[in-house]
Amino acid sequence: MSSPAFRPSRRIVFQGLGARGVAAALAGCGGSDDSGSSGGGAAPEAGAALATVAEVPVGGGIVLPDDNLVITQPTKGEFKAFLATCTHTGTQVNEVDGAEIVCPNHGSRFSITDGAVLNPPASSPLEAFAIKVDGDNLVAA
Ligand code: FES
């Protein structure tokens, strides 16, 4: 890894507030039942810029695959982040569907508010990741 300086957010997987993308996302899953993508490795260092405040929809969130993080904004001005590693068998979650973070592998869903399991087979919440607002940016805390 090189510099922890500001990183552009083009790799962000935008997730809207609707559910329209779900079917397409699932259709692309192709029956892979192994551990799936394990995603981006180590979490970003403290101070690393992750996204801009404006990129995270209120009542939803975004997935940062390369950082293996999900950043959400459950209510306006309240930002949360979680490791994107599903607590079932470790697939990287890949979508935020409204107020739910979705794992493509076996369909577990987690709350954007606290990472709690909303739909099994996962039984443990997503691991929280500390972030803070720094001007217009969200950075690792
Ligand atoms: S790895 Fe099975 S639901 Fe996520």
Write the layout of secondary structure elements.
Blueprint lengths: L20 H7 L21 E4 L7 E5 L4 E7 L2 E6 L11 E3 L2 E3 L6 E3 L5 E3 L11 E4 L2 E4 L1
Antiparallel strand pairs: 1-10, 2-3, 3-4, 5-6, 6-7, 7-8, 9-10
Bound molecules: FE2/S2 (inorganic) cluster (FES).
The site of FE2/S2 (inorganic) cluster has 11 residues, from loops.
Structure overview:
- The chain is mainly beta.
- It has one helix spanning 21-27; strands spanning 49-52, 60-64, 69-75, 78-83, 95-97, 100-102, 109-111, 117-119, 131-134, 137-140.
- The strands form three sheets. It has a four-stranded antiparallel sheet, covered by helices on one side. A three-stranded antiparallel sheet has the order 1-10-9, with no helix packed on it.
- It starts with 20 loop residues before the first helix and ends with a strand.
- Residues 16-36 have low confidence and may be disordered.
- Bound molecules: FE2/S2 (inorganic) cluster (FES).
- Residues 86, 88-89, 91, 103, 105-108, 121-122 line the site of FE2/S2 (inorganic) cluster.
- FE2/S2 (inorganic) cluster (FES) binds next to loops.
Which ligands occur here?
FE2/S2 (inorganic) cluster
Assembly state of the chains shown? single chain
- Helical content (DSSP H or I, runs of 4+): under 10%
Q: Structural class per helix/strand content?
A: mainly beta
The Cα radius of gyration reads 14 Å
Number of strands: 10
Shape: globular
Biggest β-sheet: count, sense, barrel? 4 strands, antiparallel
What's the SSE pattern? HEEEEEEEEEE
Low-pLDDT windows of residues: 16-36
**What fraction strand?**
25-35%
Overall pLDDT, averaged?
Answer: 82
State the strand order across the main sheet. 5-6-7-8
